[in-house]
Every structure is written in structure tokens, then in C-alpha cells.
Amino acid sequence: MTSSAIASMTGFARVQGGNDIYSWVWEVKSVNGRGLEIRFRGPQGFDSLEPDLRRRLKERLHRGNVNVSLSLRKLSPQAQFRVDEV
């Protein structure tokens, strides 16, 4: 697979998916900027995604103000996670 350079700093992307319990939406918005500024907004408890997300974006982007958001929605109020004791 070949990689191409991004020619513009202005853009928008949205992808959604899910499973039986949750639906999710990722959105990325970028606008012109002198340096690279990345902001991540996600549900509580998903902060651990930010370092890898920043690293991956810095590999491909050099300038711009980039906003990344993750939204989760629980589909079934009855669906819950259970952890078995070992």
C-alpha cells in the first residue's frame, strides 16, 4: 500500500459502527494552522487512546488544528458487562 501526502489542512471525516451493546462515532475535523495542534474528546475512561492517536496523527500530519472526537451510545439499557472472578 502506498501513502500519499495530504495536500490540504482543511477537512472532515466521520465513521460509525457498533455491536449489540454500543454504537460509536469517530469524527475528525481539521483547519489551517501554523503548527500541529491535536485535541481529543472522548467518553470518560477512554483517555488511554490519546497517546497512540497523537502518535499516529503526527506520523501523517505536520500542520493544522485537528479535533478528534469519539462518541458512544449504549443501545440496550439491560446490556451490562460482567467480570468473572478468577
TrEMBL record:
Cross-referenced InterPro entries: YicC-like_N (IPR013527), YicC/YloC-like (IPR005229)
Recorded GO MF terms: RNA endonuclease activity
Entry superkingdom: Bacteria
Transmembrane segments: none
Endoribonuclease YicC-like N-terminal domain segment(s): 6-85
Pfam families: YicC-like_N
Protein name listed in UniProt: Endoribonuclease YicC-like N-terminal domain-containing protein
Species this chain originates from: Lujinxingia vulgaris
